[in-house]
């Protein structure tokens, strides 16, 4: 079944949400799904838009905002399965002029079959929502019939599905099978169907903050929370004692070792987790990114955590440092990538990325790595990393770079560099984490990192 691409009419009418419990949350989830499925916008961008003063999330209480995001994220994670299930209940796709009816259906099936919401609550709210949209209201009866059938017959259909094949684009699944083998590829795709836990990097006293926040300290030093909630309401947030950062994302900056008082260049610095890490370790950090908008967040978090860095807005490819010293002894380049290692956190990625995007990103990574090499001082260390599972953006980039740059050699990452995560050390001395690592503790993002040394 092809996903319909109707015009987003989620704001045509705004009846009092109190008339139908949960109506506001379903309206917001439909808006989020429309942004991703019909407009091709990232889910995070859609969330930011809908949280604005006139957005569908703005008037909701925190619980309903969280529920709306959960519905949308689940529908995106399970989009392939939901599409397959709907083919059993619809003779043909809904027409283009059906308003938000398709998004209502996807969200409702996610609720019924993957979130265990009571059928009467889902059906009632979703039919009521359809009636508020000038186009979807003509399909409210159909939605009612489909959702009632799905509540009765959907579980049996769901249990017979191949979730891995249905929810993972073929180009991604093929790539992972060729790179990691059939079993691991299937485990990765399965891991992507589960929401990722919340990890924190702390300025100090990881054990103390784990106890205060009812979390656990991971072997690499991150604090993993076992209970959810709004981040900005947690103890220590306003005082800047920690920041949100997946345990895998926190590893590349650690590979420099001791950086106290050292000059470090963080290329492509936004959203800033690694900049904060390096600053907290006592480094003199230059955080560079071409996006002024994204650097606002970096600056805000530096202020919140009472850490310092020289924040620079510039295109790295054309940038030259001020002053006489044009190189840095430590350079970190977290290159823009397909981000397939973060699908647990960003379930829109499989639906928005393609092989053509990958080819463009690889070209950009090559240029950034070459620029990073120019900015690395003789005898200095260059760390290249991406939050991607694709070998084109990791291992293959490094092999090609080393073949063309004899002044650099790999400084192998060792098991001592990654305590408790020894399986992430590759035979060639790079770091490769997978969502299947630490599975019993909740997994981790997929990341690649290589540590390179420039000759004196």
Defining traits:
transferase, RCMT, alpha/beta, SAM-dependent_MTases_sf, 456 residues, N-utilizing Substance Protein B Homolog, Chain A, 4-stranded antiparallel sheet, Rossmann fold, S-adenosyl-L-methionine, 2 domains
Q: Provide the number of structural domains.
A: 2
Low-confidence stretches: 3-18
Shape: globular
> Which range does the strand content fall in?
5-15%
Oligomer: single chain
CATH arch. level architecture of the largest domain: 3-Layer(aba) Sandwich
Structural class: alpha/beta
Which percent bin holds the helix content?
40-55%
Short description:
InterPro entries: MeTrfase_RsmB-F_NOP2_cat, MeTrfase_RsmB-F_NOP2_dom, NusB-like_sf, NusB_RsmB_TIM44, RCMT, SAM-dependent_MTases_sf. With 456 residues, this protein is α/β, with parallel strands linked by helices. It is 41% helix and 13% strand.
Notes on the protein architecture:
This is 16S rRNA m(5)C 967 methyltransferase. Keywords: Methyltransferase, RNA-binding, S-adenosyl-L-methionine, Transferase. It comes from Candidatus Phaeomarinibacter ectocarpi. Belongs to the class I-like SAM-binding methyltransferase superfamily. RsmB/NOP family. This protein is of the alpha/beta class and 456 residues long. The chain has 2 domains: 145 residues, NusB-like (N-utilizing Substance Protein B Homolog, Chain A, Orthogonal Bundle), CATH 1.10.940.10; 209 residues, Vaccinia Virus protein VP39 (Rossmann fold, 3-Layer(aba) Sandwich), CATH 3.40.50.150. It has 17 helices and 12 strands. The strands form 2 sheets. Strands 5, 6, 7, 8, 9, 10, 11 and 12 form an 8-stranded mixed sheet that branches. A 4-stranded antiparallel sheet has the order 2-3-1-4, with helices on both faces. Helix 3 packs across helix 5. It is globular and about 75 Å long. The N terminus is likely disordered.
